Amino acid sequence: MEMILDYIEEHLIETIYFDEIAKIGCCSNYNFLRVFSFYMEISLTGYNKNIRMSVAADELREYIMLFRRGICKCIMKSVISRL
């Protein structure tokens, strides 16, 4: 299962095909999806969506911090130039 989760995380921005993941898990597509859902307590599609949303949220937080730093620098320059 570790190899499958690594594969999913490495291919987040690409289209992930269930057949390829089932091959890594050495079983049919149908059986793999059932085992994955049982083991992870979430469907493969749901897991993939949650991982992608987590990555997007982290990137958004980073951009917000950069934006805030930029605003603070502009405000400080404006205040300093008025003195």
From TrEMBL:
This is HTH araC/xylS-type domain-containing protein.
